[in-house]
Amino acid sequence: MIIYKTKTNKFCGTSYKEIIKKARIIYHSVEKRSKRSAYLRSSYFKKEKVFFSLFWGHLNQKPKKERLRRLKFLACAIELIENSNYKPTSKSNPNQKREILHRFGGITPSRELFYVQIKENIKTKRKDFMSVFPEE
Question: Which terminus has fewer CB within 10 Å in the chain: N or C?
Fold first, then answer.
């Protein structure tokens, strides 16, 4: 996997309240671009839409400390989805046979590695941004 180098830094801060505020501002700027569901145009998928519908639900299943770790990389993840042309690692979802999970690698200017996961439905070709997480 080739790793995309972002120009955007991760959010700095230690409290969940502080980070969620910054993340919501970024998300609302993406959300305002469309009248319906929030989406990004992905460079790798030939400018097809990648929807945000699963991201917040998936994130809220995690403990608060894990949510904080993941939200710090939201701005980096958005830049990666929009600009990266590098091939991700793709595998079929073990729980759902009609889905493919694409995992893109990225690195921040401060040399922190993170991954973005996008789920694609094989039948409908719909792509959903599921998660962003730093390397363990």
Answer: C
Q: Report the distance separating Cα 133 and Cα 44, nearest Å.
A: 20
pLDDT digits (tens, 9 = 90+) for 62-77: 999 999 999 999 999 9
Which residue in the block uniquely carries the two structure tokens 């599921």? 130
d(CA 111, CA 9): 10
**Strand residues in 1-136 grouped as ranges (E):** 4-5, 39-42, 48-51, 89-92, 99-107, 113-121, 127-134
What token pair was written down for 55?
Answer: 């991201």
- Region of 11 (left: φ > 0; alpha: ψ -120 to 50; beta: rest) is beta
Note every long-range contact of 91-95, with CB atoms under 8 Å and residues 24 or more positions apart, other chains counting. Answer: 93/119
In this structure, are residues 55 and 40 in contact, taking their beta carbons and an 8 Å threshold?
Answer: no
Q: What is the pLDDT of residues 16-63, one digit of tens each?
A: 999 999 999 999 999 999 899 999 999 999 999 999 989 999 999 999
